[in-house]
Design goal:
The protein is mainly α. It has 17 helices and no strands. The protein has two domains: 221 residues, MFS general substrate transporter like domains (Growth Hormone, Chain: A, Up-down Bundle); 208 residues, Growth Hormone, Chain: A, CATH 1.20.1250.20. It starts with a helix and ends in a 14-residue tail after the last helix.
């Protein structure tokens, strides 16, 4: 017992160090912001910038599904955590070095490949981490880990981004942008080293064999069962309304690339402009914590509406800046990313909580997988359409359409998304 307690304390310290460096790295160069931003700043076609993040997201979901049986049967889950982080960092490095090419086609192909590699690494790493931490730490220590790592890393990221912003004033814009990537990769490498010191119990041979058999069946042998589960989930009226709401709310949770594209079109050639976005998103993440705590007693619908309003306001500000050349300095754009960061937190958290509360305990995993499948597929199609408009019309066109979808999403949440008033099983048609 004493040994387990000692290991738990040790693992808390090690995972806290890992979380701090990993979170700082992620905040300095969030892939869904930095990949399209640098891509546009390098002068590459706008259309492909719009689909970089949907590709990243789709590959991430696929890699989670494919790696699940391997992680479940692994003797040490931290092996896959390290592997996932290395793959993700390799993708970030690939994106950073691609701008050295003068041939735009080569830059485009490498960036698309980099997005896929980053997505694969994120999928494996996040699944391994989400299953490893509960195994090593109890609920209280997990809460302490997440709160400390999140708060401290946001402050550290702000400090580093401001230092980068100050240092590169008057310098080459792309160099200042890429420096953030190298800082992120450096933090990620230190985070990987920290994982190696985690004390994890090796699985027994019997457990390994059982989990491997179960995992293999789950991925390869249950496709008909998955389709049946999806059909069952769609029989519920509330879930059909939820799917529509989730798709509409992609106009909040998955649109950062379009704001990054718009910002890059206005001041991607200005040193420090990307640093200001990183600072703004970190500030938004810090402010969202207390704000969501203050709204804790409010209904999920109220929290979703607040998030939608913040997102709509960010779209309005972006369009106003676009139409007024005198206000196109990058500092005027920073409040937009503060609002976006807050709205993404408010909406993504509460839409997941809603599904968790409404879905039945028996078969609930099919509700989650079906929602991800529908949202991911439609999100990729919509991103391609908006990317086409941004490339052949103007970078502000997608923002205007996103604003319209925000309004429709609010209308749907208010009038059509069922309230949390009864168990999901009672709402089947």
């Amino acid at each position: 017992m004493a040994g387990l307690l000692t290991d738990s304390r040790w693992n808390l310290r090690v995972l806290l160090a890992h979380g701090l460096f990993t979170s700082v790295g992620h905040r300095l160069a969030p892939p869904r912001v930095i990949i399209p931003y640098i891509y546009i700043a390098a002068g590459a076609p706008t259309f492909f910038a719009a689909i970089l993040v949907p590709i990243l997201y789709g590959i991430s979901q696929l890699s989670q599904t494919l790696s699940a049986p391997l992680i479940a049967s692994a003797k040490l889950r931290k092996t896959y955590l390290v592997m996932g982080k290395i793959i993700m960092l390799a993708g970030m490095v690939l994106a950073a070095v691609s701008i050295q090419f003068d041939w735009i086609l080569a830059v485009t192909v490498i960036f698309l490949l980099a997005a896929a590699v980053v997505g694969a690494g994120q999928g494996v790493g996040s699944l391994a981490y989400s299953t490893l931490v509960p195994e090593l730490l109890d609920k209280d220590r997990r809460s302490l880990l997440f709160s400390l790592a999140g708060g401290i890393s946001a402050c550290a990221a702000i400090g580093l981004a401001l230092a980068t912003h100050w240092y590169f004033q008057g310098g080459e814009p792309l160099i200042s942008h890429i420096t953030l990537v190298w800082l992120s990769v450096s933090c990620g490498i230190i985070g990987i080293v920290m994982v190696l010191f985690v004390r994890e119990q090796t699985k027994s041979a019997g457990t390994e064999q059982r989990t491997e058999e179960t995992g293999s069946r789950g991925v390869l042998g249950h496709w008909e069962q998955i389709k049946s589960g999806w059909a069952f989930s769609l029989e519920h009226v509330w879930f059909r309304h939820y799917i529509i709401a989730q798709i509409l709310l992609l106009s909040i949770t998955q649109v950062v690339p379009f704001y990054a594209i718009h910002a890059a079109s206005l001041h991607g050639n200005v040193p420090g402009s990307l640093s200001s976005i990183i600072v703004a998103m970190s500030v938004g993440a810090i402010l969202s914590g207390p704000a969501l705590v203050l709204m804790a007693r409010r209904s999920i619908h109220t929290k979703l509406i607040v998030g939608i309003c913040a997102a709509a306001l960010s779209a309005v500000l972006a369009l106003l800046i676009d139409g007024n050349p005198g206000y196109q300095h990058y500092l005027y754009y920073t409040p937009i990313f503060v609002l976006l960061s807050f709205s993404m937190q408010a909406v993504s958290i509460n839409i997941r909580v809603y599904l968790g509360e409404m879905a039945p305990r028996d078969g609930g995993e099919y509700f989650f997988s079906a929602s991800k499948m529908f949202a991911g597929t439609i999100g990729l199609i919509v991103a391609a359409v908006l990317g086409f408009l941004a490339h052949y019309k103007h970078e502000a066109y997608p923002i205007a359409i996103i604003l319209c979808i925000n309004v429709i999403a609010m209308f749907h949440v208010i009038f059509y998304l069922p309230r949390l008033v009864m168990p999901a099983a009672e709402q089947a048609t």
